[in-house]
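Sequence of Phosphatidylglycerol--prolipoprotein diacylglyceryl transferase (Streptomyces oceani).
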Amino acid sequence: MNTLAFIPSPSAGEIYLGPVPLRGYALCIILGVFLAVWLGGRRWVARGGQAGTVADIAVWAVPFGLVGGRLYHVITDYQLYFGEGRNWVDAFRIWDGGLGIWGAVALGAVGAWIGCRRRGIPLPAWADALAPGLALAQAVGRWGNWFNQELYGRATDLPWAVEIAPGNRPLESPDLATYHPTFLYESLWCLGAAALIMWADRRFRMGHGRVFALYVAVYTVGRFWIEYLRIDDAHEVLGLRLNNWTSVVVFLGAVAYIVVSHRRAPGREKVVEPAALESAEAADTDPTAAKDASARSASAKGTPSGEDASADVASDADDDTRADRSTADGTRRTTKKA
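Predicted 3D structure, token representation.
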């Protein structure tokens, strides 16, 4: 198979910073998480929430999501870790790749639910703010598969094919070097999904979890046809890969949620974070609250502030005036005696 052009794969899956190896797969995951939290935080504040809330809840959601993604991968591809000649310890080597999106979303939602309950905010509203960021995170995270030279598609001679090193090629085609870059297809699909989600959210003012449901529905459509191109080992049911069936079921669930949710609670939430609303109302009804807080803070530090400082200056001036009068009276009395 003659290929005029192709995407080269990296010669190594890690970059060394001195003696410390920085694995490309882990770097892509980390960058994706930061991007999702950053965009989600901006969207949350725009919806009336407080800055920092998305990041605080992400502290719960991200670890849960990583564990869930790894569990899904290990369970659905157990033969890679528990088959003959395999080492079960490799199931913990997450940096070598292997995160299932469905497990990450499911268990990550549990972590987010815990964080939302602690902050007293509705999970659907938080998920809506985070949805486009999740799509962008997936767009970045998929490049980790490029570093590991994994999860590519069928052999092809298209000019955007990805070159795979001999040690990472399928046993059935060791002489074929270029394959469909399914990681690139999914990355581009997720970028388009993020743009579509943000447009739809602005256009229709979606809320109550429908933005997140739209993200799930759009992603599953792309995942279905991309999964069809992949040639890595996977369980099949009725001629379709397990992830294809999962995409169908999840897509139908997401669409059903959008329809039912819109009928029960049309529009967007008026309040997404009660604490933010209470702070705003307190500032409007009691404009001296901030000044009092500043005075209490200054008093605690032993430093005069605001009106207290002005009172101290006036008191000092009165003391100086009384001292001057006392000196003048003493001078007059001395003159008379002389």
